[in-house]
Amino acid sequence: MSEADVCVIMPTWNRANYLGFAIDSIGRQTADVRIELIVADDASTDNTWEVIREYTSRWAHRLTIQHLLLPKGGVCVARNKALASSSAPLVTFLDSDDVWEDTKLACQLPLLSDRVGLVHSDFRYIDTLGHFSDNGGQRPDNPARGKCLTAMLAEDTVVFSTVLVRRKWIDAAAASEPHGLPFDLKWVNGEDYDLLLRIARFTDFGYVSRPLAQYRVHEHQTGMSDLARVFRYHCQVQMAFVDRWGTQLGLDSTAGRDAAQAFLLSRCESLYWQRNLEIVRKLCALATELGFNDPRFQMLKRRASRPRWLLSAKDTWDRIWTPART
User: Fold this and answer.
1) CB 3.0 to 4.6 Å from 271: which of 150, 176, 248, 276, for a disulfide?
2) Pair (51, 166) in one structural domain
3) Are residues 195 and 232 in the same domain?
4) Is the model's pTM score more than 0.90?
5) Is 272 a member of any domain?
6) For 136-149, how does the pLDDT look when each residue is reduced to its tens digit (9 = 90+)?
7) How many domains does the chain contain in total?
């Protein structure tokens, strides 16, 4: 049985170049709690093992680090195995390419209560070298706080590397599903969103509007190179959640589909104005595949199929003349 107060779940696969920074950020936590780190290694083929051994020695005075070397099974299997190997009452998650601020746990722990069973926070983006690539916190007004199931169903606004949650709510979410698992194996992307929706059935969310985590963006990041795939899973999680729990929660049978359609349309519109035309066309095709019938998808598809030079000319014209008209 674990003697730790907080268990950090860290799945990893071939992230040895970032892993040490993630572990260091756990070891530097200022909160006066016993921390165990479980690195669920999804069959890495780089020098992950050597990095873990080095940092286990470095932080032996502060952390208990367990290295679970697993056969290749994906992030859901890795996280489920890690959770099964710990009994700590509090659980937090950190992807092996992200890092925490030193005060992350110290800021979040006081917000946990009988009513608030999960606390998350704002975050910032960093690049491959660890330099900030933004202008500050990304969402200080995050709607996922309090009784936030409706807000969460509209969109996943929780960055998973910021989550601190009572273990009992993870267990409750797992026990209420036929598969009995924290992370549903069918969600290759979106498994964290699915779990958060299930936890939101049981407890309120707390939020720290300060950025307590740094989300690293790099070319090998899972999902970043295929937004259509990521958004497909997001929409499917929304719809599947309402299919399972909508009646019990008093939701209309179309609530999941309506939320998914609105989410995908907002992404299409945003990406169109950023002139990411190829991904817009892919998302419009996804909307057709999922049976979304809002006519704005077809309008965006037509607009995104125009010659790029024509849109570039329009953008140039707008930049020149809009100030003069105002």
Assistant:
1) 276
2) yes
3) no
4) yes
5) yes
6) 999 999 999 999 99
7) 2
The residue written with tokens 């730790």 in the block is 4
Cα separation of 31 and 9, whole Å?
Answer: 17
Helices (H), 85-166: 104-108, 149-154
Q: For residue 138, what are its two tokens? A: 């990304």
- Residue 104 CA to residue 212 CA, distance in Å, equals 5
Helices (H), the chain: 16-27, 48-58, 75-84, 104-108, 149-154, 167-175, 191-200, 227-249, 255-273, 277-289, 295-304, 308-325
Instruction: Write out the residue range of the structural domain in which residue 33 sits.
Output: 6-216
Same structural domain, 158 and 67? yes
> Rounded distance, CA 306 to CA 211, Å?
40
Per residue in 305-314, pLDDT (tens digit) is: 987 766 666 6
Residue 40 to residue 10: CA distance in whole angstroms:
6
**Exposed (0-12), middle (13-18) or buried (19+): which is 172, by Cβ within 10 Å?**
middle
pLDDT in tens, 241-251: 999 999 999 99
104 and 171 belong to one structural domain: yes
Kindly list the strands in the beta sheet with 35-42, ordered across the sheet, starting from the edge strand earlier in the chain: 63-70, 35-42, 6-12, 90-93, 164-166, 116-126, 204-216, 99-100
CA atoms in the 13 A half-sphere facing the CB of 268: 28
